[in-house]
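Incident log, entry 3
Record: XTP/dITP diphosphohydrolase (225 residues)
Problem: checksum mismatch between cached and fresh output.
Input:
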Amino acid sequence: MSEEGPVSAESHRDPLRAAAETMREVRERCVWSQQITHRDLVPYLIEESHEVIDAVENGTRDDLREELGDLLWQVLFHSAIAAQDADDPFDIDDVAATLTEKMVRRHPHVFAGEVATTPEEVLVHWNAAKAAEKRTRRSVLDGIPRGMPALALAQKIVGRAAGAGVVAGADAAAGAVRPSSETELGDALLALVAVARAEGWDAERALRERLRAVEAEVREAESGA
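Fresh output:
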């Protein structure tokens, strides 16, 4: 540790740099942190992400600032672990540089002279840039994290399925009363969960199993079978 303490004088003028250097010190000097792996951190990352969501939906501005900091700490922690990898190290500066390059590339209407005057036009640029980046993907379903909660996963898969010409859930929707607001949608979802509980069904498992069938439909459509 330098004579100036755990962070340098320059870091005091740059709070993000100070946070990164604090994390580095913790990784190097805390016996618990020294043993932590990327996999070990996953439960903490999930928890901190949900705490940010809770702060957005129910908390104060102070709560949100604190929880965003805790989530940032997870990013810094993963980066500090990665920096010590013997075969393919990278640090928080590499993470930040990769992020900046991606965001500049995906916003040509901001940085490269393209034009987007509506949110829909912005999405056209975003999706075109993303498609160019992911040329090796063979399915619209590639890249969807399967660890997402079932409802969030369903919304993602339904959107991707539509891009492949598969209208997921159309049969069920045809016979159902269509909610006219998010509040009514919440009521409808809660009612379905109540039915599942009464019948002894696992609502999460039921949705995930249905999603597997949708995925199979999408991949069949993509293969031209």
